[in-house]
Amino acid sequence: MASVYDRHVDLNGFMEGVKKRNPGQTEFIQAVQEVAQDIFEFIEDKEEYHQAQILRRIAEPDRVVSFRVCWEDDNHNIRVQRGWRVQCNNAIGPYKGGIRFHPSVTESVLKFLAFEQTFKNSLTGLPMGGGKGGANFNPKGKSDAEVMRFCQSFMTELYRHIGPDTDVPAGDIGVGGREIGYMFGQYKRIVNRWEGVLTGKGLEYGGSAMRPEATGYGAVYFLQNMLKHGGKDIEGHTAVISGSGNVATHAAEKITQLGGKVLTLSDSGGFIYDPDGIDQEKIDWVKHHKTHTRGRISDYVDHFPGASFHGDGARPWGVAADLALPCATQNELNEEEAKELVGNGVIAVSEGANMPTTLEGVHVFQEAKVMYAPGKAANAGGVAVSGLEMSQNSERISWNHGRLGEMLTELMEGIHGKCVEFGDQGDGHVDYVKGANIAGFKKVADAMLAFGVV
Ligand SMILES: NC(=O)C1=CN([C@@H]2O[C@H](COP(=O)(O)OP(=O)(O)OC[C@H]3O[C@@H](n4cnc5c(N)ncnc54)[C@H](O)[C@@H]3O)[C@@H](O)[C@H]2O)C=CC1
Ligand SMILES: O=C(O)CCC(=O)C(=O)O
């Protein structure tokens, strides 16, 4: 009997289904839409992917675990947060992706991040599936003891869902070395085994050299590869950067080392503009201020009076520059701001953050033929070095900073090459969004085909 099931739905029909199955999950729907438009074009004449409903399956996480996290604050109040782990796809390796602690965390945000992570991890060429987790916990203003109690409580539930060959979380917004230490300590205490279940660990207990720098440096290496492909270079160019955390400060450091001049950094309060350039001494001050003092970026102008602070949550995209690196959070660069950057002559955009540009903003860059690197390609250096941390833990060895630096440089060159292979438009322009989506998809999809219907 002939099947009445239409496996050849078009992009609109597919997206209608995604919206119906994920009501109100705007970030997740946005991430799927951005990928689906390229994948539909790619699989148009590839019956095997339609037959196996591969895209439909990738857009449905393997599982979403949500749980209660109770902890006691310093005033003995009992606080209740919600934690999640989204295990999106493990076709090519154990689930892998960071943990985010921020009040804006929802299931939709974590589903979009886990979905993006699946393609990103595939692009690295390393055997890692995609996952992401987190909680609507705000570490800002909390004491070390409160953060420790929260992390321990979070891990007391999470530990049963993860493992070195199952799911290997790491850091993300609000989760850095301090939080990884507290969570790793609690995991080890519960299972009574030392195993590489988290990455981003301290160097004293199995962490990898180069992991703290890897995402920001990697985003600049990707930028360098794009510019080189277009016959240009970072040296002598100005850059606007958003954020002032791990990714932003290391991106600023690498731009500066390569002869560029960084003009801005930001946080949710606003941005600082330093026309003299944010050099290494100033970057070191920001790193210390954000990681140890845990202060605001507005304090920068008290230390470096040549700079100005622009408050009320203002974003830096109106400052004229050659290069732009959004390194804070999702949807922090909209259509109007993209137009402003293009109007000011931006040459290239490299996303250190995940999905920082809205869909409309992406279209502005694509239409203007700006060199535009989406986060899933540009910021893959972090998870790539996490993959190398997993290898080092499994082998009970550790590689040195120099060797890992070389490996990171090669990995980013490889990711750039894959984007060019699938995104070359034949007119000298590379559509890096298309290139990253198709290259990331193909490996995962082919692995899924090999497994049959699972
Ligand atoms: N840490 C890593 O290895 C990787 C991080 N990413 C992405 O990079 C971005 C930044 O992450 P990290 O630097 O690790 O986090 P972080 O916690 O070290 O820093 C986050 C920065 O973003 C700013 N920020 C947060 N929400 C904001 C908002 N609503 N408006 C303006 N600024 C805001 C914070 O003030 C802070 O400066 C995120 O999108 C994350 O998913 C991507 C790949 C790997
Ligand atoms: O290093 C990792 O496993 C996670 C990095 C991450 O969360 C990301 O790439 O967005």
Automatic annotation (TrEMBL):
CDD domains: NAD_bind_2_Glu_DH. Residues 208-452 form the Glutamate/phenylalanine/leucine/valine/L-tryptophan dehydrogenase C-terminal domain. GO terms for molecular function: glutamate dehydrogenase (NADP+) activity. The keyword Cell inner membrane does not apply. The keyword Amino-acid biosynthesis does not apply. Belongs to the Glu/Leu/Phe/Val dehydrogenases family. Homohexamer. This is Glutamate dehydrogenase. The gene is gdhA.
